[in-house]
């Protein structure tokens, strides 16, 4: 479905980003992956994408919490790929504390990566997409772009910002062949959430699996985690021709979380 398309997925050395890179590659796209981790494990992932799907996969190590390095990263990635059709802004981090205890440095780091990197990435990608007359920007927001939870001020503020930014990019580019949409997942069992499960298990004095069930039962009516591969399939849809008139939307995948 995406044969010959050229895609960037930020924060794709683990979790949701890796699953999205895998799904885009499986659909035929060449991909640039990015994120932190052990060099040999990342190289394994890169090679595995090429071997499984017969596409070109590249890795670029860039810290996307810095404005200029985010813009340079998108530029370099587009040069490697020979153009840019799909930008998935996925990299993100979390920290939990009440507002009065939230460290300034954590606030700044979350806003820089979860929100500002989406802006800088899009700003660098759009001129390239305009020249081509086509492009897809897919922002991995969260249910926390739509509703709030306690102790997540920076994350909720950043993700609400991403949903707003998604709408602005969609409107500014509605006649330029570029769509911009946000995917809003509920709980997905990645390292970002595993830390929260571990903290809950300590707080409640229960096993990890009991804590995971408790986490789900508080917010996610299906009582099941969203699977990274399901988010990959959603990204493939948003990048496909079928979604050419889908823009400025939020695609919620949350087991019913925001329906209550
Ligand atoms: P994860 O921790 O598994 O992956 C995060 C990725 O971002 C990793 O590849 C990491 O190396 C990379 N990264 C971290 N800091 C970076 C930086 N400064 N520059 C470049 N890359 C950096 O987490 P995940 O759960 O897969 O999260 C991916 C996205 O999905 C995030 O934006 C997160 O907010 C969002 N999300 C996650 C959930 C969930 O339940 N896991 C729910 C909703 C939204």
Overview of the molecule:
This protein has 260 residues and is of the alpha/beta class. The chain folds into two domains: 214 residues, Rossmann fold (3-Layer(aba) Sandwich); 37 residues, no CATH class. 50% of the residues lie in helices and 13% in strands. It contains eight helices and seven strands; from the N terminus they run βαβαβαβαβαβαααβ. Helix 6 packs across helix 7. The two termini are 35 Å apart. The model has no long low-confidence stretch (mean pLDDT 98). Bound molecules: nicotinamide-adenine-dinucleotide. Nicotinamide-adenine-dinucleotide binds next to helix 1, helix 4 and helix 6. Its EC number is 1.1.1.30.
Q: Mean pLDDT, rounded to whole units? A: 98
Distance between the termini: 35 Å
Q: Which spans have pLDDT < 50 for at least 5 consecutive residues?
A: none
Structural class: alpha/beta
Please tell me how large the radius of gyration is.
18 Å
| Helical content band | 40-55%
* Shape field: globular
The kinds of small molecule bound in this structure are: nicotinamide-adenine-dinucleotide
Q: What topology, given as strand order, has the largest sheet?
A: 3-2-1-4-5-6-7
Question: What is the total domain count?
Answer: 2
Number of helices: 8
Considering the protein shown, what is the CATH homologous superfamily of the largest domain?
Answer: NAD(P)-binding Rossmann-like Domain
Largest sheet: 7 strands, parallel
Q: How large is the share of residues in beta strands?
A: 5-15%
User: What's the CATH architecture name of the largest domain?
Assistant: 3-Layer(aba) Sandwich
What is the succession of H and E elements? EHEHEHEHEHEHHHE
The name CATH uses for the topology of the largest domain is Rossmann fold
Quickly name the level 1 CATH class of the largest domain.
Answer: Alpha Beta
Number of strands: 7
